[in-house]
Amino acid sequence: MTTSRPPPFDAWLFPPGLPQPQALEHVGSDTVTIRYPKSDHHLAYILVSSLRAARPPLAGLETRDLITLLGAAGERFPHTLDEEAIGEVAANAGLSPPMTREVLGGMADSWTTDALKRLVRAEFPDPRVLDGFVAEDGRKTHAAAPGVTLHLGAGSVPGVTITSLLRALLVRSPVLVKPGAGDEVLTTRFARELHRADPRLAAAVAVHYWPGGSPGRATWEQELLTLADQVVVYGDDDTIESVRARAPASTRLVEHPHRLGVAIVDPDSAPGAAADAARAVAMFDQRGCVSTHLILLLGDHEGAREWCGHLAGHLARIDAKLPPAPPSPAELSARHQLKGRLALRETTTEEVTSWAPEGAGWTLVLGPGRAFEPVGGRTVWVVPVPAAAACPDVLAPLSAKLQTVGLAGVRPDRGRLAEALFGLGATRIVPLDQVPFPPPDWLHDGSRPLRELVCWSELR
Amino acid sequence: MRVILDELSAVFGGWDGSGRDDAGAGREGGGRVVRGAEPCRAAPLASDAAFNELAMRIHEAQRATNPVLRRFWDASPGGKPADWREIPAVPATAFRDIAIVAGTPERVFRTSGTTGGGGRRGEHHVLSLDVYRAAARANYRHHLMRGAESLRVLSLVPGPREVPDSSLSAMAGFMAAEPGVGSAAWGFHERDGVDIAAVRAAAAGGGPVLVLATAFSLVHLLDALGDERIPFPDGSRMMETGGFKGRAAEVDRDTLYGRAEHALGIPRSRIVNEYGMTELLSQAYDGVAGTAPALRERLHRFPPWVRTRALDPATLAPLPPGTPGLLAHFDLANAGSACHILTEDFGHTTPDGRLRLLGRVPGAPPRGCSMAAESFLRAFRTTP
Fold first, then answer.
1. How many Å apart are CA B152 and CA A237, to the nearest integer?
2. Residue A52 CA to chain centroid, in angstroms?
3. CA of B118 to nearest chain A CA: how many angstroms apart?
4. A76-125, pLDDT tens digit by residue?
5. A332 touches chain B (CB under 8 A)
6. What does each C-alpha distance from A346 to A159, A365, A367 come to in angstroms?
7. DSSP character for B43?
8. Smallest Cβ distance to A348: which of B98, B117, B378?
9. Of A160, A198, B282, B330, whose CB has the highest number of CB atoms within 10 Å?
10. Helical residues (DSSP H) of A77-183, grouped into ranges
């Protein structure tokens, strides 16, 4: 019996009426092949022009109606994904189907009507400013995104690009989305749902995947960076720097670089923290900017060793319930390197102990803070710290990249600690169990997610 | 250990490329820079038995003098190794963490930031520069210097005075000091980049030039030249090394060599790639300058004191020739540190012991928007 290879997935969606691409390229694995249009310098102009023309009808929608339209699509969307579709999304993202379902469930909470209402209200106490000029302290103000927004997605956390796309539409910006590699299927499927929902959304949403940064795409990317009014870019430092270097001054940049998540746990005051910590580590297979890589555990080394045993147990349980996808050769290589390095470290100091059971999809390292580096693939480092007051010093070297700090059981020092963490650059300090899925109105990388997209106008 | 290091220097120094199917290649005109044929003491290492005998002697010496390795091996599963293949390999990234050396190092070489990352750069503590020089010298003389009456060196690799902790710069320094090398110019500086005037001056002088370049510095030179052509004298040749990891403007090697041929007048058959790592004291080349085949036909080969295996990424079991896997090298020149190195490179071997490099391991760990170690280490380095 032979198994047939699934048909390729078309990772593009153009507004109705635009010519369909004549030549296609593809990239893929054994389980999913992604097709996308070949670079065509006319296409960039046609796409952006078409999206720009869709702005007035989009702007003509009142905010409450737009929220209803988008929220309904967001609520409907998860139910449109059958097992086969989940499998396709999972294969594309490099996650297991159970993890994909879990991630989608968590992310989709931000796409509902109520969630979008909450987001808009948190950003604009009077949401009518998105519809027109509204009186405010002796003047009138109006907010909207500038023209067309180009989204350059990063990597393979399914749903991140959808959230980003919804934000732009809420502030009346037609969007051209380049999903990150591994997020093509979910993003394109969601865009199709929006196209079905309303012709004004169909005209305002385009998806076009291409391998970002590839030499043959330099001209194409340059054209888009010039034509778009605003670029939202997710990615590593190289990607961000590359976009910065090429975008003209007239194009507004909104940057979301890669970030690190950490946790601070007082095990005596938070007996259930090990389970929450394991979930914060494992969710998205540790690829989210919110994902926890490092846990500062209050107490001594012996206590930490005992707590690590609990954490290992929970990581193993999550491994069974939400298994990681089969690792790629690069992930396997990274594990071999880490395993060997830890074995060598253990020969020189008793400070380092590791748990990496054969065949497990996680690694736990107990050691000093100076040893830490984010490895990914559900690898978590636990560092014993004598008291909460000592945590900022341990985290200081990471300050440039800190984002989410999950707290468990550190209430007496919470206020002072939060101030110190804020001083280090942490932009999200939340209970550990809330780490994986931020609410819709979270301050994403220290910015208000809608306000960072808009321009204001005042009328006096 | 000192006795073994002296022995290795002598063995490597006597190697003339014999025992290789490309040994005679490039001996056009008799080869004056590489003079005469010394008795070859390295050739027997081509035999597995001789290689294993020396490898196991080194292993015993390392057990006695290198406590880090001894404890690492003792803690590793498996008993006493009967064969070099059974000696547990040290991951290349471990050079970031720990000094692996059998004594007091004569020099510490550091990785530049791609393989080893930035904040914690890999450090190779080198016990004997003589061994490094001997291992490198025999190999570059064979692959780069044959067939020339005399050579001048133009290095687009910063010099050893400028970057004293770079193993590549050290090797460039060795080459510049070769008796058959008339003059050496340093045409790339860490701070200022390519020195076009130095390149023009080198091209204008008489006699062939050996150009040493990283892919990165070569791209810089060619970009700086634009449409300008600076033809180098007949017989000039080039060693190119390194990749393009982390560079926004990636180019493939075929394109790069084509541009170099056009701009510098050095034919592709005289441009050879060197594969090396800070963590290894020996290097592999993909041809002999002057007779290097077309790029698609090229395979890298180490000298006979190195063995390379491709390993199954999941199990680390050895793979047969032709099957790609993680590359592990066993370099006898690393006697002072660690011989058996598990790399993050991907490739396959051939039945005759050559190597097809396929770059970094495929399927880079998906990252989403979480920070990768490499970015982290780079950021860590730049954080005051």
1. 40
2. 26
3. 12
4. 999 999 999 999 999 999 999 999 999 999 999 999 999 999 999 999 99
5. yes
6. 39, 11, 10
7. G
8. B98
9. A160
10. 83-93, 97-108, 113-123, 160-170
Q: Which long-range contacts (CB under 8 A, 24 or more apart) does A238-244 make?
A: A238/B246, A238/B248, A238/B375, A239/A152, A239/A154, A239/A212, A239/A213, A241/B248, A242/A213, A242/B248, A243/A152
> For chain A, which domains are there?
9-258+445-459 (3.40.605.10), 260-434 (3.40.309.10)
pTM: 0.83
DSSP assignments along A45-85, one per residue = HHHHHHHHHTHHHHHTS-HHHHHHHHHHHHHHGGGG--HHH
**ipTM of the assembly?**
0.85
Nearest chain B residue to A336 by CA: give it.
B91
SS3 letters across A296-315: EEECCHHHHHHHHHHHHHHH
Q: In three state form, how does the secondary structure of A351-407 look?
A: CCEEECCCCCCCEEEECCHHHCCCCCCCEEEEEEECCHHHHHHHHHHHHHHEEEEEE
| Among A residues 308-327, those touching chain B with beta carbons less than 8 Å apart | 327
Interchain CB contact of A373 with B (< 8 Å): yes
Question: What are the boundaries of each domain within chain B?
Answer: 2-305
As given in the structure block, the two tokens for residue A424 are 């280090």
B308 within 8 A of B324, measured Cβ to Cβ:
no
pLDDT digits (tens, 9 = 90+) for B180-223: 898 999 999 888 889 999 999 999 988 999 999 998 899 889 98
Question: Which one of 3.30.300.30, 3.40.630.30, 3.40.50.980, 1.20.1250.20 gives the CATH number of domain B2-305?
Answer: 3.40.50.980
* Residue A357 near chain B (CB below 8 Å): no
Chain B nearest-CA distance from A93, in A, is 8
Asked whether the beta carbons of A226 and A248 are under 8 A apart, the reply is yes
- The beta strands (E) that lie in chain B are given as 90-91, 107-110, 123-126, 151-155, 181-186, 188-189, 193-194, 209-214, 237-241, 271-275, 284-285, 306-311, 325-331, 340-349, 355-360
Contact yes or no for B144/B272 (Cβ under 8 A): yes
Q: Rounded to whole angstroms, how far apart are CA atoms A421 and A388?
A: 11
Query: CA Rg, chain A, in Å?
Result: 23
